[in-house]
Design a protein that fits this description.
Length: 178
């Protein structure tokens, strides 16, 4: 029975580990976007990049930072036709790459669920399986589901908010140019 408890405990532990990893990466995207738009609109794109550096683990912040750095390197070319689309494409590529990095360790949560389910299956062979052994897989599944939900939320919020920062940068560049 000890092996069963170890399997279920390890399964829950792995899914919790994955959830904690994702929680550490999360930021309030709406608030950060508001701050970034204000900074960029005021011509403080350097400070906006520093703000992104403060949220080092956030995929959204990393994608915005790389896009702003690219925009700064373009200097006056931002106002030219097609430059805005180039920046939007750059953000989309960077953001997709960061989301892919967030999804990469999903196997940890899957392994945790598998361990918990295997432990529960082994416990069913005993005459009276303890309640914990049957609830363990449900807990692991719930945590794994929340992990995927966090990634999905980051994807939807970041995908909508990123272009607003880019538009603010383009508008500010046009104001400077005129």
């Amino acid at each position: 029975m000890t092996l069963i408890y170890i399997m279920i405990g390890a399964g829950i532990g792995l899914t919790v580990l994955r959830l904690l990893f994702l929680i550490m990466m999360r930021i309030n995207i709406k608030m950060m976007t508001q701050m970034l738009v204000k900074l960029v609109s005021a011509g403080n794109s350097d400070r906006a990049i520093k703000l992104c550096n403060a949220a080092l683990r956030s995929g959204y912040a990393i994608a915005i930072k790389k896009t702003l750095q690219r925009a700064q390197s373009m200097e006056g070319a931002v106002t030219e036709m097609g430059a805005g689309q180039t920046l939007r494409t750059k953000f989309a590529e960077e953001f997709d790459a960061e989301i892919a990095k967030m999804r990469k360790p999903d196997w940890i949560a899957s392994l945790g669920v598998l361990l918990a389910v295997a432990g529960a299956a082994l416990s069913l062979s005993s005459t009276e399986p303890p309640l914990f052994t049957l609830i363990g897989p449900v807990i692991a599944l719930g945590i794994a589901f929340n992990s995927r939900k966090i990634v999905k939320t980051e994807l939807s919020q970041g995908g909508e908010a990123g272009p607003r920062v880019i538009e603010a940068f383009i508008e500010e560049a046009k104001t400077k140019a005129s």
